[in-house]
């Protein structure tokens, strides 16, 4: 991911979302809200308000930069790897599914690794990892899911470096850029609200 | 009484208007191929770079066609309603991409082929009556185009029943006909349409593209549609 891309992506696109959001909420009761809460509020149960796009994109880009690191990628270790292998079969299967989701998001959007709480109808007795894709500014927070990792697949994220070759960008992201440390830290936080293991076992 | 024979040009009028090259596979379904541009990739410079035009036509549009044809093959082979219905988003997205870009290439022309020369005739009157002036139409299209969040298009369309010109936007590759309007002029505001040259400054791309808009094509679509 080139310096030029980061200069534009962070310095222009992300900055514009933040500046415009601040303008939109200035002087309103929304000003003091945490960004995650603002996003959910703006989503308005599927009927988004005028500031949803800026709020969602501001949150998504913060999360994206923290999902990257120089010399990243390769495989995770520890509990992240364990859960990936449990819920996808293997790291390779996870990577394939993640690449597929990111490549097939029509138009602008994001692909995510998320934690999903146990099912409300009891069919899932414990939380699990899953891959999701969202369009434009939408993110898993509004679905009640816990984001662990994201890749931006809006064209501005990769066009200077890869042009139309989105799959090459996605492969590079997986091989070289993911901060598995960030994912690990988020998984730890997710465990405060999601139980990833059989309820009976974890009470031992 | 002998049947009426229209001159060949009239008979083929609408088909020529579409001018989307097709072949019929030996298995009995139609597939599509990339239409040629009426100008070189570099001909729209400095308003749209040759690099963008080449990628946009030979990669992006080509991919929509490839994927549309693949979806059509699956449609041909589908054995149950569920499989058929499951193809609708691929058909809408890729077919729409093919439709929209085929219109777009013709909506553009280099200056030496009339690009940028304002509308004449019935379209000019309609624009004047309904928007006040071409400049006002351009302002409206540019602000609508700049406001598209994510990927999409801004259009000048015709509501045929009301004989009304409309500025409308569509998301992703949804064809304007999905909204019941006839497309006359479309401007692609997907980032791939401008990013290499204009980066995040979509408004500059929108301001400049009017220098290469082929109003003759837009007018003939208008007259054909009425």
TrEMBL record, chain A:
GO cellular component: chloroplast nucleoid
One GO molecular-function entry: metal ion binding
Cofactor(s) essential for the protein: Fe cation
Pfam hit, one: Sod_Fe_C
Transmembrane annotation, as ranges: none
EC code(s) of this entry: 1.15.1.1
Domain Manganese/iron superoxide dismutase C-terminal: 76-186
Cited Gene3D superfamilies: Fe,Mn superoxide dismutase (SOD) domain (1.10.287.990), Iron/manganese superoxide dismutase, C-terminal domain (3.55.40.20)
Location of this chain's protein in the cell: Plastid, Chloroplast
Primary location: plastid
This protein's UniProt keywords: Chloroplast, Iron, Metal-binding, Oxidoreductase, Plastid
Domain Manganese/iron superoxide dismutase N-terminal: 1-68
Reaction equations catalysed: 2 superoxide + 2 H(+) = H2O2 + O2
Binding site for Mn(2+): 9, 61, 152, 156
Function: Destroys radicals which are normally produced within the cells and which are toxic to biological systems.
Similarity remark: Belongs to the iron/manganese superoxide dismutase family.
Protein name: Superoxide dismutase
Organism annotation: Ceratopteris richardii
From TrEMBL, chain B:
Chief localisation class: mitochondrion
The keyword Magnesium is annotated on this UniProt entry: no
Sequence positions that bind Mn(2+): 56, 101, 188, 192
Enzyme Commission identifier(s): 1.15.1.1
GO CC entries: mitochondrial matrix
MF GO annotations: manganese ion binding; superoxide dismutase activity
Record domain Manganese/iron superoxide dismutase C-terminal: where: 119-221
Cofactor list: Mn(2+)
Keywords, in A-Z order: Manganese, Metal-binding, Mitochondrion, Oxidoreductase
Substrates-to-products reaction catalysed: 2 superoxide + 2 H(+) = H2O2 + O2
UniProt domain Manganese/iron superoxide dismutase N-terminal: residue ranges: 31-109
Classification via SUPFAM superfamilies: Fe,Mn superoxide dismutase (SOD), C-terminal domain, Fe,Mn superoxide dismutase (SOD), N-terminal domain
Family matches, as InterPro entries: Fe/Mn_Superoxide_Dismutase, Mn/Fe_SOD, Mn/Fe_SOD_BS, Mn/Fe_SOD_C, Mn/Fe_SOD_N, Mn/Fe_SOD_N_sf, SOD_C_sf
Family, similarity comment: Belongs to the iron/manganese superoxide dismutase family.
Reported function: Destroys radicals which are normally produced within the cells and which are toxic to biological systems.
Name of this chain's protein: Superoxide dismutase
Organism: Ceratopteris richardii
